[in-house]
């Protein structure tokens, strides 16, 4: 179905509990072919939301929900002011997929947990209450932080990890109007409702993402570790931004991918490092503090030292490049 | 609810009348709204150069240019691209002459079974435009570089969405490089 405007799209979904928004379709169409997603109605919103990257009055950038991943990655302002975001996008998917996939859709993509995809196996995310096949199954790719007894899936987006480190805001339209959500709060931990990836209500539509005007975000980086050189999801990824003056960390943002049900903002590590000398020792200590709560599964204990090392390396590179 | 005028409900199945411009020719057709661009082209219009490999957006055999950009047509619903301009490998030859990329694939033996080849060639065409526009890739050292230099590493990264089960990559890369170097 096609609505005339975003308000119409939201109203259409409000009336149809089993309808979904369609944007680029790179994930949703695939999940429909597999019978994982079975909407009655699709409301095509790709041409309704903005496909432009625009300057905000505060000096930040507003990214329309329909901006393709490829266009966002190549945007000159994004490359200069938020390099971690460009790098994250370029580290994800393939050239063809990035051309179809949108900013809003990328945030809302579902986990790539193999059991979520395999409709013959139990999965609490796909079929609440059926059980989690990954907890005792093949769980190399799964979460080490913030998981629950109901779900150990990870969020697959690279872009969202960079946006988490950049403190982005997600603008959402619902039946009662707009709301602005810190990206940190958009995605949720699985708890006992793993079927809910985000805090969004059924008929709420992402219309744009705002990137803040903080200057030190231009000193940011995304580093991804995967099993192939290209075109694979992250085992672990790190997005970080660092502001160092006279060898001391003035401000810092770190987010981890591939480790949790949401982009994992490493606030403990950030707090540990603020005001401290930017040294390898301190970076390592902070990373270890962040990972103290890690609860690896049978097959993914390797993610703990991997996440630590990638954090340390990324922060070192950022401190050296200043 | 803003339903598209050309849509017709038949029980749960909904048909829509759409127009696509494929390889320069305007084509009108009625599709079940669940039909992908790939199936619309192959099954309805008889345009079979976009291949169905994985049908999940992983292999790139179905690649075509959609309004000038390379995409996986197996993941695009045809109804969402009503009015779009599509270029397939079949539409690349001009005046009976192969496109330079097509000729380079022949000369370099850039295939074995040939199934992925139309997708490889269209993807390469889209990729060359992206590089020309200055789009960086995962392996581009300086994100802010003005001009992209397509060495083998860049070509391999940018073409990683096109799999070749015969592993003809060793010939595909030089074929693309020959055209990009011109």
Any overview of this molecule?
- The complex is a heterodimer of chains A (322) and B (182).
- With 322 residues, chain A is α+β, with helices and mostly antiparallel strands.
- In chain A, 31% of the residues lie in helices and 19% in strands.
- Chain A folds into two domains: 47-211, Uridine Diphospho-n-acetylenolpyruvylglucosamine Reductase, domain 3, CATH 3.30.465; 221-321, CO dehydrogenase flavoprotein, C-terminal domain (Enolase-like, domain 1, 2-Layer Sandwich).
- Chain A has 13 helices and eleven strands.
- Chain A has a five-stranded antiparallel beta sheet.
- In chain A, α5 packs antiparallel against α9 (159-165) and α12 (280-290) packs antiparallel against α13 (303-321).
- Chain B is α+β, with helices and mostly antiparallel strands.
- In chain B, strands 1, 2, 3, 4, 5 and 6 form a six-stranded mixed beta sheet that branches.
- In chain B, β4 (63-66) and β5 form a beta hairpin.
- In chain B, α2 packs across α5.
- Chain B is globular, with a radius of gyration of 18 Å.
- The A-B interface holds A 1-4, 8, 11-12, 15, 22, 24-26, 29-30, 32-33, 40, 42, 44, 46, 68, 70, 73-74, 76, 79-80, 83, 86-87, 90-91, 93-97, 99-100, 229-231 and B 1-4, 7, 12, 33-34, 36, 55-57, 60, 63, 66, 69-72, 75-77, 79-80, 123, 126-127, 130, 133-138, 140, 143-144, 156-162.
Strand content of chain A: 15-25%
CATH topology of the largest domain in chain A: Uridine Diphospho-n-acetylenolpyruvylglucosamine Reductase, domain 3
Portion in strands of chain B:
15-25%
CATH topology of the largest domain in chain B: Ubiquitin-like (UB roll)
Rg on CA atoms of chain B, Å: 18 Å
CATH secondary-structure class of the largest domain in chain A:
Alpha Beta
Radius of gyration of chain A: 19 Å
What does the main sheet of chain B amount to?
Answer: 6 strands, mixed
